[in-house]
Specification:
The chain has four helices and eight strands. The chain is an alpha+beta fold. The strands form three sheets. Strands 2-5-1-6 form a four-stranded antiparallel sheet, covered by helices on one side. The chain has a two-stranded antiparallel sheet with strand order 3-4. Strand 3 and strand 4 form a beta hairpin. The radius of gyration is 17 Å and the shape is flat.
């Protein structure tokens, strides 16, 4: 079962994070990602650039609308995503608990419903659960 671990927290500049804390965070995330990979559960990982680099688009009545910045202005933002493939939610919780971001922000765990692999769609949703 694949789960996305969404790492949420304030941006470093907004939280006034020291250089020492930033270095600790980089090292801690590096070690955590390497442990996910070594365990064979890491599918992908992305640490995102600051929200100031975001571009939000929408299409309304056939017209493209482009907005500089995030969709919503909040104190906390999505800092990164880790997609893992583990047997169940308990295993996902175990990995999320070890995420350094859980110590100063939050990690939201979402199970994947549909996965695209090798040009094909694969459902992870139990058909009886959808009914």
């Amino acid at each position: 079962m694949q789960y996305s671990l969404l790492v949420m927290s304030q941006e470093a500049g907004d939280a006034e994070v020291s250089d020492e804390a930033m270095e600790w965070g980089r090292a801690a995330f590096d070690a955590w990602a390497k442990s996910l990979d070594a365990a064979g559960v890491l599918v992908s990982a992305d640490i995102l650039q600051p929200v100031a680099h975001a571009t939000t688009i929408s299409v309304r009545d056939g017209s493209l609308l482009v907005q500089d910045g995030a969709f919503i202005d909040t104190k906390e933002r999505l800092n990164g995503t880790f997609v893992i493939d583990v047997p169940d939610l308990d295993a996902a919780i175990g990995w999320a608990e070890r995420c350094p971001g859980a110590q100063y922000g939050a990690v939201e765990i979402l199970p994947s419903a549909i996965i695209f692999r090798e040009g094909a769609r694969h459902s992870q949703v139990n058909e009886t659960a959808e009914a």
